[in-house]
């Protein structure tokens, strides 16, 4: 997989391209350094567009796009070993003060002028008053001028709004027909009449409900229904908030594959075009949390799926909703969060539930995030 050339941009257009990782042993040597001391840094890939420096993703991006790599990263034995490596990185670096080295105002720091400007840009969504980072999020730049009170990379990543109800009010709290956005995110896809089984690895927005939900017995309620998917930017709030009021009736985390991406093998000369091409595929194979919520009519039973999509991204269901079902939940209430890395969300609705999505939730209509807890769709029963 280190000798094959990936059929994806930018490698497929460069005949002289080669992997900077020389082979398996070199890869392990690089892993050993990252696990002990490297935390994700802030980078700017293009003017105004900030990215997280994902060290494992950088090492594996080449083999991930090859036919051999596609098979390799789906192997359960490989994923068991990768999980051990990533868990060690989490415990030694991401959750500890070692990672504070990147939570600074210096170059590559997450509190640098460029990073803070990007975070403020993505968090100020209503077009009115613009708030500063300090006004938006819990932090302490006066008491701690270096790290602003953040104790680790994860502490920064899961930062909370200073005043959630002010910054992100719940849309239509007393109206069960209104569904709100569960995560602060950019729309990726809306797909109706989804199938029990479908070829989710092919081009397009094909969702396979049974595979997404790990063949859970409740999955069958969503055959013929609708899936809404959106992508969370690394700069944004990473909590999950209930899209409806009702009762959580079941919840679980499904273990998945690390570093797997959709293969173009057998799809003629179609090149892979990052970054959104992979989101539908990952909703079926990556580690993900599923939370089933029984709401009042017209929504009824629905499902939230939180998808960890980069490096050590972890899905944490709030403890109250991970057991003792049914558990009451209010629209806009926190039900869990992502840790450490990139992420995506899906909302699944039953067949017969019609949805009128707000304009901002339609993929391609806007390039900004849709605020968490803001109105997403108006639900009504099919005649």
From TrEMBL:
InterPro entries documented for this protein: PS_Dcarbxylase (IPR003817), PsiD-like (IPR022237)
GO MF annotations, alphabetized: phosphatidylserine decarboxylase activity
Domain L-tryptophan decarboxylase PsiD-like intervals: 1-118
One cellular-component annotation, GO: mitochondrion
Keywords per UniProt: Decarboxylase, Lyase
Biological process per Gene Ontology, one example term: phosphatidylethanolamine biosynthetic process
Identification of the protein by name: L-tryptophan decarboxylase PsiD-like domain-containing protein
Organism expressing this protein natively: Ophiocordyceps sinensis
Lineage: Eukaryota, Fungi, Dikarya, Ascomycota, Pezizomycotina
């Amino acid at each position: 997989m280190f000798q094959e050339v990936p059929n994806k941009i930018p490698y497929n257009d460069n005949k002289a391209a080669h992997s900077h990782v020389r082979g398996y042993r070199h890869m392990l040597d690089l892993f050993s350094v990252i696990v002990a001391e490297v935390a994700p840094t802030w980078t700017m890939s293009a003017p105004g567009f900030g990215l997280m420096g994902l060290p494992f993703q950088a090492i594996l991006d080449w083999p991930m796009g090859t036919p051999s790599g596609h098979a390799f990263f789906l192997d359960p034995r490989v994923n068991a070993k990768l999980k051990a490596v990533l868990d060690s990185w989490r415990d030694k670096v991401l959750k500890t003060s070692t990672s504070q080295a990147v939570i600074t105002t210096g170059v590559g720091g997450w509190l640098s002028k460029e990073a803070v400007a990007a975070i403020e840009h993505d968090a100020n969504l209503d077009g009115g008053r613009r708030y500063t980072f300090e006004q938006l999020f819990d932090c302490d730049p006066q008491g701690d001028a270096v790290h602003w009170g953040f104790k680790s990379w994860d502490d920064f990543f899961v930062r909370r709004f200073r005043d959630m109800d002010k910054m992100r009010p719940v849309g239509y709290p007393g109206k069960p027909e209104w569904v709100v956005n569960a995560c602060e995110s950019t729309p990726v896809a809306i797909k109706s009449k989804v199938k029990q089984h479908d070829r989710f690895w092919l081009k397009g927005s094909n969702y396979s409900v049974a595979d997404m939900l790990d063949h859970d017995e409740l999955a069958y309620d969503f055959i013929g229904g609708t899936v809404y998917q959106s992508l969370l930017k690394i700069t944004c709030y990473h909590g999950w908030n209930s899209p409806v009021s009702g009762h959580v009736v079941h919840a679980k985390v499904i273990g998945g594959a690390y570093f797997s991406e959709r293969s173009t093998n057998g799809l003629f000369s179609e090149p892979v075009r990052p970054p959104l091409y992979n989101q539908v595929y990952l909703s079926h194979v990556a580690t993900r949390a599923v939370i089933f919520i029984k709401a009042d009519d017209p929504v009824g039973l629905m499902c939230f799926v939180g998808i960890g999509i980069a490096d050590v991204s972890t899905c944490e269901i709030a403890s109250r909703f991970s057991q003792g079902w049914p558990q009451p939940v209010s629209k806009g209430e926190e039900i869990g969060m992502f840790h450490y890395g990139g992420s995506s969300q899906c909302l699944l609705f039953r067949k017969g539930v019609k949805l009128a999505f707000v304009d901002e939730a339609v993929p391609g209509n806007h390039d900004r995030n849709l605020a968490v807890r803001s109105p997403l769709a108006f639900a009504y029963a099919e005649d």
